[in-house]
Design goal:
This protein has 269 residues and is α/β, with parallel strands linked by helices. It has helices spanning 17-24, 32-44, 48-68, 88-95, 108-117, 136-141, 143-148, 169-181, 200-212, 222-229; strands spanning 74-78, 100-105, 125-130, 156-160, 188-194, 234-235, 241-242, 262-268. Strands 1, 2, 3, 4, 5, 6, 7 and 8 form an eight-stranded mixed β-sheet that branches. The longest helix is centred in the N-terminal third of the chain and has 21 residues, at 48-68. The N and C termini lie far apart (41 Å). Bound molecules: S-adenosylmethionine. Residues 17-18, 21, 55-56, 59, 79-81, 104-107, 110, 132-134, 160-162, 165 line the site of S-adenosylmethionine (SAM).
Amino acid sequence: MDNGDVPPEVDTSKPHSARIYDYYLGGKDNFAADRKTAIKAMEAWPPIRMAARENRAFLGRVVRYLAEEAGITQFLDLGSGLPGVGNVHEIAQDVNPAARVVYVDNDPIVLAHGRALLNSTPEGTAVYIEADMREPEKILAHPVTRATLDFTKPVALIFIGILHFFTADDEVRRIVEPLINAVPSGSYVAAAHVTAEFAPAPTVKAGDVYTRSGVGIIGRDADVFADLVFKGLTLVPPGVVVVSEWRPEPGAILPARADVSINGAVARR
Ligand SMILES: C[S@@+](CC[C@H](N)C(=O)[O-])C[C@H]1O[C@@H](n2cnc3c(N)ncnc32)[C@H](O)[C@@H]1O
């Protein structure tokens, strides 16, 4: 991306998780500092690009499941990232044109691009808000959230590829619990989280690259992840699995777990 196109509030000298991920996915919204971190992480753990694509594909299958099979029409996508292929509102509105989506991110570049690219159906809504997930009450009270989502009806909370950036378990609880408490029964929680279970040495090394560049990240094993995010909820089969194994497309060739190293699940409140 040309620095001339960048909003003044975006600091391109430091790597950022949204733009590193954009680089893995082949996007153009990344800068030299992001690419440097991304390339070093890929040297430490070569399958990282495949893992990013599997994470994104999981997001797509989850949203289609929620819209088509669970009948969800409202989505709150936390740590939504830059608009890419198969955004939540596009998939949800393909199933139900009246679906409503609130995207939340705290990277100003996401907001700048998100606003430009939102292409909701006329019957539905797709909006971005700039907010820090560490302040879930502000997200819930935000006028745009209130105007878009009806919290007396089921809402899907989406935490995909995000909670591993909060390295303290307590911080994850402080984010997730108020949001889950704010939605009625019949709502859903979907999450994906990196793990070092299947390829401990290289994934930890890649995580160290992130942390040294200022983007803190932590892998959590499936049981810790499940306890933090899904406790008291009913997991939808197949439960917590490597994201590529969550309701794969028929005939899909599944990569090795060690090459994905991201667990994911969907649960009902
Ligand atoms: C790796 S991307 C994941 C994007 C998308 N959810 C997906 O899985 O395809 C993580 C996103 O979380 C955002 N993020 C990181 N910390 C955040 C925070 N404290 N509040 C809100 N968003 C945050 C980043 O800006 C980035 O866009």
